[in-house]
Structures are given as structure tokens and as C-alpha cells.
């Protein structure tokens, strides 16, 4: 083992939370190291975590490719654009995705170099005394001593005991790399990953069946948003079966036999590929040596306070391995906040204004409380909504599905939530985030001039509808 190296900050993990923490710490003049164990398809180190390698970025690349193909057969005709026998070359599509991934993972390496962050490639384990032992890919071990250590270990896919990952049963990683469009694709879980990757292969011609154990579709979303989304997915022939609890899988010559139980009793479907998308768990296995005093809860999450501090001097944790939503952008903000706290600056993340997005077609997005939550908590509120079908830009794009809903406190008018389903709502949701972050009111939002014609006009009219003064619909 080589001599121990000393740093002001040692970051374990170079995913969204980790690389943001490392770069910001280095910008603030702190001597910083960042450890990551991931390898790319070429066997070389690949920074960026699940998000850049096998999550957010590659899935959006495939979603966009599949959307172009879908539009050729379903929307372009309305524009007077005709195609004969459109085909998809899956190898080229996946290759494009891989190039994008390599571009962005390489980009993180360049940013580390530019900001003088020292990378270490291997598996890091926290030892007592803020020492991190790194088992590098060549088999050697180095020890890094950090005045501060930031744990940003991320998360892993949950594997079901009766559906072990392999050639035919896959997680999000495998579903990004199919060599051909499966004739039949089964998906366990109608969450973000299940809906997005199910949509990709459905658009390309696969017969997709999504099995969701819960009785309600998108239970975390606004009920009206979930209802409209489900209706649009049905039009796309995405077969979503609710209250379907999978109990068994069996890989046979003719495919994967999936046994589930719903209101009709026990049933079986046969698929060529099965995607298991039932959630993720914190990647904290073997991360902490004995004696670190860092606490881990029953779900494997590292326990932290509101400032992401573990209670052990100089040890912090951020991103998917701590409480709060497992979202890359939440990790971004926590990583930056902790780096600034370490440097003696104010740092804070408001978990109440973290936006959620599902990049299906139409897109689904929200921030803040749903109507159901407000009712359950006894908070008086007013609601205003506006449909994209009445927005000129949406109709001109031939994408009129969905609406925007603004929820405001009945007495103070402060915006409490915004819920959207429709084209490009992943961009529009930030009007709600910004308004809430500045404690703005529905009236504030209604009085801001929005460009015409634009999709954002739906936000404007929804805010006006809170006070029953929408111009473009009956109040």
C-alpha cells in the first residue's frame, strides 16, 4: 500500500451528486479527490454515475430516437409529410446513445482536470478517522485522508428474488442495450423507469405490457394528471395493468413466463424480454468499515440532518444514498450545498421545490403538493387549470394533449404546487419551481407576460384561472 494522501475533501462517487460536490469544492480552493468505480462499455473508467452512463442521459437519447420514429407514423401525416416503409436500425440507435454517453462521461473527466480535482478509479470504503481506502482496478490499494468526506455512492436497481437479472430478465441497464426490438416486452413497475423504457420499445413496435402492483396509476402524481396520462398511453397501445402483483418468472424456450395475480385471479403472460423496474436502493453495501459511526437505516440509507451531515465530524452524504427523492438534480444541489458549507458559505436545498419529470409522450411533471395531499393535510386551496388544446402553439405542433394546473393557498394565494402533462412540460414546470422558491403567488404568475404563441401560455392561463379570470376558457 502506498503512503496515505491528504485532501481537504474526499468524495466517494462521481455521479450527479458526487461530481458536483467535487467540482464546487475545488472551485472554492479546497484540495479535492473524487473516487469512482464505474467502467464504460470499453472497459475504461466512466465518470458520471448511473445518470450519465445508464440512466437519465442514455434513456433520453433512446426516447428521442423512438419519438422521431413514432412521429413519422402517427403525427407527420397531419403535417402533410409522408414516408413509405419507415424502418428503425436498432444498432445505429443504440450506437448513437453510446456516443452521447461517452461524450458526457468524458466531459466530466475534462471538468475534473480543468478544476484540479484528482480522480481515483476503484471502490472506496470509508474507514474510521475520515480515511477512505480505495481498491483500484489494477488491484492496488491507496488510502486517502480527508478533512471532510462526502459520500455520494448513489443507488442500484432492486432485483426481485424470483426474477434474477440475466439475458432475458433485465434492469434499466439491459433495457438500454437490446440488440433488436423485442416482439413482446414485459415491464414490472409503472414508475418513471418502467414508463420511459416501456415507451421507447412500444414506439418501435414492441407489444408492451406493464404490470403495476398498486391499484392506482402514478399514485405519487396529481390524480387528474395520472388519469389524462393513462388515457394517452392507452391510445399508444401501452398496456398498463394495475393491481397486478407478480409472484413468479420462468425462462423457457418460448420466452419469459410471468405469473401475476390481479382482481381476476392468477394469470400468466409470455414475453421475449422482461424489464424489472420496481425501484432503486442506496448503494451502501460494503461502503462503511466498522467503527465509522455513520448510521444507516433499515433501507440502507445513510442518516443525515437537513444539511446532509451524518453527525460524524467531517462526514457528509448526498444524493440517492440519503433521504429525499432519488433524482439527479436533487443530488446536484446537495453536492453543491455541502461543498459550500464545508467552505464556510451558506448552503441549503429545499426538498419541497424539487421538480419531478417523467419523459414519456406526453411528458408529465410536477412540483409541490397535489390536491390529494392538500385535502389530506387540511390546507385550504384554490385551483386553476388550462388545457393545451386551447393553446395555439400546442395545436400547431399537433400535440394538444394535457393541461397545466396551479394550486394556491386560499387565503395567502401563495403557490403550493404545479402539475402538468403535455408537450415539453419538463421545461414549463420550472415556472412553478421558481414561483414557489420565491414564495410567489398565483397572482404574481398571472401578471407575468408570457410570449405568444408559446406552450408557456398554458401556465399563464392556469394561474389566471385560480382567480377565475382566464381569458381563453370559461371560468
UniProtKB/TrEMBL annotation:
<keyword id="KW-0547">Nucleotide-binding</keyword>
<keyword id="KW-0285">Flavoprotein</keyword>
<keyword id="KW-0676">Redox-active center</keyword>
<keyword id="KW-0274">FAD</keyword>
<keyword id="KW-0560">Oxidoreductase</keyword>
<keyword id="KW-1015">Disulfide bond</keyword>
<feature type="disulfide bond" description="Redox-active">
    <location>
        <begin position="51"/>
        <end position="56"/>
    </location>
</feature>
<feature type="binding site">
    <location>
        <begin position="326"/>
        <end position="329"/>
    </location>
    <ligand>
        <name>FAD</name>
    </ligand>
</feature>
<keyword id="KW-0520">NAD</keyword>
<dbReference type="GO" id="GO:0004148">
    <property type="term" value="F:dihydrolipoyl dehydrogenase (NADH) activity"/>
</dbReference>
<feature type="binding site">
    <location>
        <position position="212"/>
    </location>
    <ligand>
        <name>NAD(+)</name>
    </ligand>
</feature>
<feature type="domain" description="Pyridine nucleotide-disulphide oxidoreductase dimerisation">
    <location>
        <begin position="354"/>
        <end position="462"/>
    </location>
</feature>
<feature type="binding site">
    <location>
        <position position="279"/>
    </location>
    <ligand>
        <name>NAD(+)</name>
    </ligand>
</feature>
<dbReference type="GO" id="GO:0005737">
    <property type="term" value="C:cytoplasm"/>
</dbReference>
<feature type="binding site">
    <location>
        <position position="124"/>
    </location>
    <ligand>
        <name>FAD</name>
    </ligand>
</feature>
<feature type="domain" description="FAD/NAD(P)-binding">
    <location>
        <begin position="7"/>
        <end position="335"/>
    </location>
</feature>
<dbReference type="Pfam" id="PF02852">
    <property type="entry name" value="Pyr_redox_dim"/>
</dbReference>
<dbReference type="InterPro" id="IPR023753">
    <property type="entry name" value="FAD/NAD-binding_dom"/>
</dbReference>
<feature type="binding site">
    <location>
        <position position="60"/>
    </location>
    <ligand>
        <name>FAD</name>
    </ligand>
</feature>
<feature type="active site" description="Proton acceptor">
    <location>
        <position position="452"/>
    </location>
</feature>
<dbReference type="InterPro" id="IPR016156">
    <property type="entry name" value="FAD/NAD-linked_Rdtase_dimer_sf"/>
</dbReference>
<comment type="similarity">
    <text>Belongs to the class-I pyridine nucleotide-disulfide oxidoreductase family.</text>
</comment>
<keyword id="KW-0963">Cytoplasm</keyword>
<dbReference type="InterPro" id="IPR050151">
    <property type="entry name" value="Class-I_Pyr_Nuc-Dis_Oxidored"/>
</dbReference>
<dbReference type="InterPro" id="IPR001100">
    <property type="entry name" value="Pyr_nuc-diS_OxRdtase"/>
</dbReference>
<dbReference type="InterPro" id="IPR006258">
    <property type="entry name" value="Lipoamide_DH"/>
</dbReference>
<feature type="binding site">
    <location>
        <begin position="189"/>
        <end position="196"/>
    </location>
    <ligand>
        <name>NAD(+)</name>
    </ligand>
</feature>
<dbReference type="GO" id="GO:0006103">
    <property type="term" value="P:2-oxoglutarate metabolic process"/>
</dbReference>
<feature type="binding site">
    <location>
        <position position="320"/>
    </location>
    <ligand>
        <name>FAD</name>
    </ligand>
</feature>
<dbReference type="GO" id="GO:0050660">
    <property type="term" value="F:flavin adenine dinucleotide binding"/>
</dbReference>
<dbReference type="InterPro" id="IPR012999">
    <property type="entry name" value="Pyr_OxRdtase_I_AS"/>
</dbReference>
<dbReference type="InterPro" id="IPR004099">
    <property type="entry name" value="Pyr_nucl-diS_OxRdtase_dimer"/>
</dbReference>
<dbReference type="InterPro" id="IPR036188">
    <property type="entry name" value="FAD/NAD-bd_sf"/>
</dbReference>
<protein>
    <recommendedName>
        <fullName>Dihydrolipoyl dehydrogenase</fullName>
        <ecNumber>1.8.1.4</ecNumber>
    </recommendedName>
</protein>
<dbReference type="Pfam" id="PF07992">
    <property type="entry name" value="Pyr_redox_2"/>
</dbReference>
Amino acid at each position: 500500500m502506498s503512503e496515505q494522501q491528504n485532501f481537504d475533501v474526499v468524495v466517494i462517487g462521481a455521479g450527479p451528486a458526487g461530481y458536483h460536490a467535487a467540482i464546487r469544492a475545488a472551485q472554492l480552493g479546497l484540495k479535492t479527490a473524487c473516487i469512482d468505480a464505474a467502467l464504460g462499455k470499453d472497459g475504461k473508467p466512466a465518470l458520471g454515475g448511473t445518470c450519465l452512463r445508464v440512466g437519465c442521459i442514455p434513456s433520453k437519447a433512446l426516447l428521442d430516437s423512438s419519438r422521431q420514429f413514432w412521429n413519422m407514423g402517427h403525427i407527420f401525416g397531419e403535417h402533410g409529410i409522408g414516408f413509405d416503409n419507415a424502418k428503425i436500425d436498432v444498432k445505429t440507435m443504440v450506437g448513437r446513445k453510446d456516443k452521447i454517453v461517452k461524450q458526457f462521461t468524458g466531459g466530466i473527466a475534462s471538468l475534473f482536470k480543468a478544476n484540479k480535482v484528482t480522480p481515483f478509479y476503484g471502490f472506496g470504503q470509508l474507514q474510521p478517522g475520515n480515511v477512505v481506502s480505495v481498491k483500484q482496478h489494477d488491484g492496488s490499494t491507496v488510502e486517502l485522508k480527508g478533512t471532510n468526506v462526502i459520500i455520494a455512492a448513489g443507488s442500484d436497481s432492486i432485483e426481485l428474488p424470483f426474477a434474477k437479472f440475466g439475458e432475458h430478465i433485465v434492469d434499466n441497464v439491459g433495457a438500454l442495450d437490446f440488440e433488436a426490438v423485442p416482439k413482446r416486452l414485459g415491464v414490472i413497475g409503472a414508475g418513471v423507469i418502467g414508463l420511459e423504457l416501456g415507451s421507447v420499445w412500444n414506439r418501435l413496435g414492441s407489444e408492451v405490457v406493464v404490470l403495476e402492483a398498486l391499484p392506482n396509476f402514478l399514485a405519487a402524481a396529481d390524480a387528474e394528471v395520472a388519469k389524462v396520462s393513462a388515457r394517452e398511453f392507452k391510445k399508444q397501445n401501452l398496456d398498463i395493468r394495475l393491481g397486478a402483483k407478480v409472484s413468479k418468472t420462468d425462462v423457457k424456450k418460448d420466452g419469459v413466463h410471468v405469473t401475476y395475480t390481479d382482481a381476476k385471479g392468477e394469470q400468466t403472460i409470455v414475453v421475449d424480454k422482461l424489464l424489472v423496474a420496481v425501484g432503486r436502493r442506496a448503494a451502501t453495501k460494503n461502503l462503511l468499515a466498522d467503527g465509522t459511526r455513520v448510521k444507516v437505516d433499515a433501507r440502507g440509507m445513510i442518516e443525515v440532518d437537513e444539511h446532509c451531515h451524518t453527525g460524524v465530524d467531517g462526514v457528509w452524504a448526498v444524493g440517492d444514498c440519503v433521504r429525499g427523492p432519488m433524482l439527479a438534480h436533487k443530488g446536484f444541489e446537495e453536492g453543491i450545498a455541502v461543498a459550500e458549507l464545508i467552505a464556510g458559505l451558506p448552503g441549503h436545498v429545499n426538498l419541497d421545490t424539487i421538480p419531478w419529470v417523467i419523459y414519456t409522450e406526453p411528458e408529465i411533471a410536477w412540483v409541490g403538493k397535489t390536491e390529494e395531499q392538500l385535502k389530506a393535510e387540511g390546507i385550504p386551496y384554490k385551483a386553476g387549470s388550462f388545457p393545451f388544446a386551447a393553446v395555439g402553439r400546442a395545436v400547431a405542433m399537433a400535440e394538444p394533449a394535457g393541461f397545466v394546473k396551479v394550486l394556491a393557498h386560499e387565503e395567502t394565494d401563495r403557490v403550493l404546487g404545479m402539475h402538468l402533462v403535455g408537450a415539453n412540460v419538463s421545461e414549463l414546470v420550472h415556472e412553478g419551481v421558481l414561483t414557489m422558491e420565491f414564495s410567489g403567488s398565483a397572482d404574481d404568475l398571472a401578471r407575468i407576460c408570457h410570449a405568444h404563441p408559446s406552450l408557456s401560455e398554458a401556465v399563464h392561463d392556469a394561474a389566471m384561472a385560480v382567480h377565475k379570470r382566464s381569458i381563453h376558457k370559461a371560468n
